[in-house]
Amino acid sequence: MKTQTSRLLMTVTILAVLSGVAAAQEQPDFPGPEKEHQWLKKFVGQWTTTSKGSMGPDQPPMECSGTVEGRMIGELWIVNEMQSTPQGIPMQGLQTIGYDPAKKKYVGTWIDSMLHHMWQYEGTVDKSGTKLTLEAEGPNFMSEGKLTKFRDAYEFKTPNLIIVTSSMLGDDGQWVTFMTGECQRKTTAAE
């Protein structure tokens, strides 16, 4: 009995010391949002989209419409969930955008239900503070089996209107715009 009491007392003492040490350790400092993260809140809300594009010189132009829902993950990331029907085929896409202070660049990803490729973005906001341009490498749909650079630009003409332009780097080193569109805000996150 004495041995059990001694063991119990020793266990309680060790646990008390360990919990005091754990409480005394400082919690790690997690990074807070910077002004660049605040800029991403412009995307929050529900949007309707219209776009026109061409997948190559021999392809007829296509038009499609869809929706985007933008929501923040904490105060550091925006997640844009997109749905549309290009050429009558239902498509879902998921875009993430954040800001990496070490790189001094916006970073993000894009995946969708039509491609196997995960796009990895890097980009900047222009001096006017209205246009985010992101670049990524992806499959060249004009030269099968090759990769090329792509550029997506999101220009906030007003808080409720975004002009979207997508371009790819041609073999001649020139940027070729293959899609333009608009996002019209339906609601904000608070509505």
Report on the structure:
This protein is mostly beta strands and 191 residues long. It has one domain (35-187): Calycin beta-barrel core domain (Lipocalin). Helix content is 15%, strand content 51%. The chain is built from two helices and ten strands. The protein has helices at 2-24, 35-39; strands spanning 45-53, 62-73, 77-84, 91-100, 105-112, 119-125, 131-139, 147-158, 161-169, 175-187. A ten-stranded antiparallel β-barrel has the order 1-2-3-4-5-6-7-8-9-10. A hairpin with a 5-residue loop joins strand 9 (161-169) and strand 10 (175-187). The longest helix is centred in the first third of the chain and has 23 residues, at 2-24. The protein is elongated, with a radius of gyration of 24 Å. The model has no long low-confidence stretch (mean pLDDT 86).
Short description:
With 191 residues, the protein is mainly beta. The chain contains two helices and ten strands. It has a ten-stranded antiparallel beta barrel with strand order 1-2-3-4-5-6-7-8-9-10.
List keywords for this structure.
15% helix; single chain; 191 residues; mainly beta; 10 strands
How would the blueprint of this fold be written?
Layout: H1 2-24, H2 35-39, E1 45-53, E2 62-73, E3 77-84, E4 91-100, E5 105-112, E6 119-125, E7 131-139, E8 147-158, E9 161-169, E10 175-187
Antiparallel strand pairs: 1-2, 1-10, 2-3, 3-4, 4-5, 5-6, 6-7, 7-8, 8-9, 9-10
Please state the average pLDDT score: 86
Contiguous helical run count: 2
Strand runs, count? 10
Kindly state the percentage of residues in helix: 10-25%
| CATH architecture label name | Beta Barrel
Widest sheet, order of strands:
1-2-3-4-5-6-7-8-9-10
> Major beta sheet, specifics?
10 strands, antiparallel, barrel
Radius of gyration: 24 Å
Q: How much strand content do the residues show? A: over 45%
